[in-house]
Amino acid sequence: MRRERRRSERIPVEHLVAFSCYRRGDSVPYDHSMGKAVNVGEGGMMLQIYKPVEQGTVLDLEIGIGNEIVDAKVEVLATRKISFNGDGYTASTRFVYIDHRNYLKMMRLERLSFTRKAGNL
Q: 93-118 pLDDT, tens per residue?
């Protein structure tokens, strides 16, 4: 059995995201794209995206959660090429900024959804 190295648990999610890409220190984005969040934890989230993004890139996210759009800012820690609906990438990120209330809302909604899917309600 593989030992978990993360400090906090990751919860599976499926949220559409739109994002702008910024190089460190830049105030003007160099690219815009879309993807989806596939899991979220205390310190960050995993994204599936269609373009490679360099380590250290800052992404301004607009995350669709229920009927709301939640803003967040993340830093890309690593990307890896994968295949999903064609070619794509996963991006491991850490939160640079997310409003605490929005983070709690996202976690609460996902825990409820995850619990229902598991048949525990």
A: 999 999 988 887 777 665 555 444 44
In a domain, 66, yes or no: yes
DSSP symbols for 9-74: --EEEEEEEEEEEE-TT-SS-SEEEEEEEEEE-SS-EEEEESS---TT-EEEEEEEETTEEEEEEE
Within-domain flag for 30: yes
Closest CA to 46 of 19, 22, 78: 78
Which residues of the chain are modeled with pLDDT < 50? 1-2, 4, 114-121
Q: Which structural domain, as residue segments, surrounds residue 98?
A: 11-116
Angle, vertex CA 66, rays to CA 62 and CA 67, nearest 5: 80
Residue with tokens 């996963």: 90
Give the domain CATH number at 48.
Answer: 2.40.10.220
| Predicted local distance difference test score (pLDDT) of residue 78 | 96
In a domain, 5, yes or no: no
Query: How high is the mean pLDDT of the chain?
Result: 83
